[in-house]
Specification:
The structure is a single chain. By secondary structure, this protein is α+β, with helices and mostly antiparallel strands. About 30% of the residues lie in helices and about 10% in strands. The protein has helices spanning about 45-50, 60-80, 130-135, 160, 170-185, 195-205, 245-250, 255-265, 275-280; strands at about 10-20, 25-35, 40, 80, 90-95, 100, 110. The strands form 3 sheets. A 3-stranded antiparallel sheet has the order 3-5-6. The protein is globular and about 75 Å long. The protein starts with 8 loop residues before the first strand and ends in a 34-residue tail after the last helix.
Length: about 325
């Protein structure tokens, strides 16, 4: 893949070991090294510099970072690839504020469903979440390819993955982007669960509890024999909670428009989430004329380079 917002592969280098066979020595490749373009740091480094008072993250920075991230993701999804590990540490940034999506270890090709689920904005509050989990796990005719649900770092993991659904779509990347944009506003991770169950509690606390009739229209999921803490029958239903995500983002640098964008990126139902191309048309990104990243205030040095001697640090 080649895109301004995707980290560029510069070179592939191999090392070899000598293998003796039948009295002859042969050079056999033993390791493969992938050399990528150099970037000064990642979004985690940027947020650390902001919290330490070494860098001022302006609204223009956040708007540019969001646009670049969505443009890179639009390119990825247009090529029928799902990244599956979008998080602050995997979004590299150059000194001139150019974002680069990196770490493709969990990425894979993606085949869209032949019959997309009908989208609806209905998300009634007050449902028994454990019933919703059971509904999400119903064994129905599969509409798309089955993938492992053990992907995406927990804090950025979409609710359908936490529910065990294996016929997910590129919407899981959109959820992760929503978490990351919220992190740029709040200067902290939005949902910091210690395990899957706590992560779902935190999500429902901000995004509201869903109604079974509107939750998870993508039916294919783990076999009934596979269970997680989320589906334990002895756990009581979660209390009904209204959606209050916009209120939690009030007063941040994104303003009401930024809060609305995050709210739409973090729709509980994956079929209701904005796509990358829809998000790029959101008002938050067009309130002011888009700025070239290189015309933004440059980043401060994010990491101290430690010289090594003889290959040992």
């Amino acid at each position: 893949m080649s895109h301004p917002n995707i980290v560029r592969l510069e070179e592939i280098v191999t090392s070899s070991d000598t293998n003796s066979q039948n009295g002859e020595s042969r050079s056999v490749p033993s390791s493969i090294y992938m050399v990528f373009e150099y970037c000064e740091g990642d979004i985690l480094d940027v947020l650390k510099a902001v919290r330490e008072g070494r860098f001022q993250l302006t609204r223009d920075h956040v708007c540019s970072f969001t646009r670049q991230l969505l443009e890179g993701m639009l390119y990825i999804h247009s090529n029928r690839v799902v990244h599956r590990d979008i998080k602050a540490a995997n979004i590299l940034v150059t000194r001139n504020c150019r974002l680069k999506i990196a770490d493709w270890g969990l990425a894979r090709s993606w085949r869209p469903p032949t019959e997309p689920a009908e989208a609806t904005a209905d998300e009634d509050v007050g449902a028994n979440v454990h019933y919703a989990v059971a509904s999400a796990r119903k064994s129905e005719k599969e509409k798309g390819s089955r993938y492992t649900d053990n992907v995406v770092t927990l804090w950025y993991r979409a609710p359908e993955l936490l529910m065990g659904v294996s016929s997910y779509t590129t919407a899981i990347d959109i959820w992760s982007i929503g978490c990351l944009v919220a992190e740029l506003f709040l200067l902290r991770t939005l949902f910091q669960g210690r395990d899957e169950l706590e992560q779902m509690h935190l999500i429902f606390r901000s995004c509201g509890t869903p109604a079974p009739k509107s939750w998870m229209r993508a039916p294919a999921s783990r076999p009934a024999t596979q269970t997680t803490a989320l589906s334990s029958s002895h756990r009581p239903p979660l209390p009904a909670r209204p959606r209050r995500l916009k209120e939690e983002l009030a007063g941040t640098s994104g303003g009401p428009e930024g809060a609305d964008l995050v709210d739409k990126l973090l729709a509980l139902d994956p079929s209701c989430r904005l796509t990358a191309i829809q998000a790029l048309d959101h008002e938050f990104l067009w309130q002011d004329e888009p700025k070239d990243p290189e015309k933004l205030p440059p980043l401060v040095p994010l990491r101290r380079m430690v010289p090594t001697v003889g290959g040992k640090g």
